[in-house]
């Protein structure tokens, strides 16, 4: 894997009190914001292993704790350096959380860690999959015209997303043991491309359902 600096584990001492840090951004012992050198891995920010299948509750818990102590408003009377760090870290926190809680964005980000030179837009899904997507789009067109989307159609789309997430989870586990395997990387690229189509279906399905709800 590309060696992104894992400051969650490597930055061990507070630069102010020399106390062992629980988290890279902030010392909870002396309540001082920390200056980080290097690029942070989004997973390590939340104390997670760098893998696709993650505990979203841990992301939420770590985010809620860190955003309180790193919010820029908290540093209104602090030094310019601390103000700048608070703004930088709070932005990074929001971006990293948004990436990790979204299974599609998480997959793209994780692949970029394993294979930073990989062109994620270069792989086209199989023709059979494209045909299936067109068929579902037509069903959504009909649902939009009638103003009603069936439970079975919604379930079919959500099942596709769930299956793709599970497949990506398995593929990334394989990639962890064989990080240079181009076949696994290509497979993941293909699943990400498929996920993009499925995400469009999910978005359309939710929009139609919302319109349907607003009419009642």
SSE class:
mainly alpha
The number of domains: 2
Major sheet description = 2 strands, antiparallel
- Assigned CATH architecture of the largest domain: Orthogonal Bundle
Write out the strand line-up for the largest beta sheet, numbering strands in chain order.
1-2
Low-pLDDT runs: 2-9
For the residues shown, what is the average pLDDT? 89
Helix content class? 55-70%
**CATH superfamily membership of the largest domain, which one?**
DnaJ domain
3D shape: globular
Alpha-carbon distance between the two ends: 51 Å
Helical stretch tally: 8
Secondary-structure element string:
HEEHHHHHHH
Radius of gyration: 21 Å
Q: What name does the CATH topology of the largest domain carry?
A: Helix Hairpins
The multimeric state of the shown protein is single chain
CATH domain class of the largest domain: Mainly Alpha
The count of DSSP E runs of length 2 or more, i.e. the number of strands, is 2
Strand content: under 5%
Q: TL;DR?
A:
This protein has 216 residues and is an all-alpha fold. It is built from eight helices and two strands. Helices cover 63% and strands 2% of the residues.
Can you walk me through this structure?
The chain has 216 residues and is mostly helical. It folds into two domains: 7-101, DnaJ domain (Helix Hairpins), CATH 1.10.287; 127-214, Monooxygenase (Up-down Bundle), CATH 1.20.1280. Helix content is 63%, strand content 2%. It has eight helices and two strands; from the N terminus they run αββααααααα. A two-stranded antiparallel ribbon has the order 1-2. A hairpin with a 4-residue loop joins strand 1 and strand 2 (32-33). Helix 5 runs antiparallel to helix 8. The protein is globular. The model is unreliable at 2-9 (pLDDT under 50).
């Amino acid at each position: 894997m590309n060696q992104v600096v894992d400051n969650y584990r490597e930055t061990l001492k507070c630069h102010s009190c020399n106390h062992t840090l629980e988290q890279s951004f902030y010392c909870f012992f002396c309540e001082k914001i920390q200056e980080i050198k290097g690029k942070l891995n989004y997973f390590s920010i939340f104390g997670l292993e760098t893998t696709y299948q993650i505990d979203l509750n841990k992301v939420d818990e770590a985010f809620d704790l860190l955003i309180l102590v790193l919010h820029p408003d908290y540093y209104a009377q602090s030094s310019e350096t601390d103000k700048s760090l608070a703004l930088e870290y709070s932005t990074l926190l929001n971006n990293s959380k948004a990436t990790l809680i979204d299974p599609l964005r998480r997959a793209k980000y994780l692949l970029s860690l394993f294979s930073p030179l990989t062109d994620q837009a270069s792989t086209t899904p199989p023709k059979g999959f494209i045909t299936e997507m067109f068929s579902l789009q037509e069903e959504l067109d009909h649902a939009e015209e009638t103003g009603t989307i069936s439970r079975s159609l919604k379930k079919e789309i959500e099942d596709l997303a769930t299956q793709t997430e599970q497949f990506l989870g398995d593929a990334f586990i394989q990639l962890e043991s064989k990080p240079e395997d181009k076949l696994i990387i290509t497979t993941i690229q293909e699943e990400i491309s498929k996920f993009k189509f499925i995400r469009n279906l999910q978005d359309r399905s939710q929009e139609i359902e919302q319109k349907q709800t607003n009419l009642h």
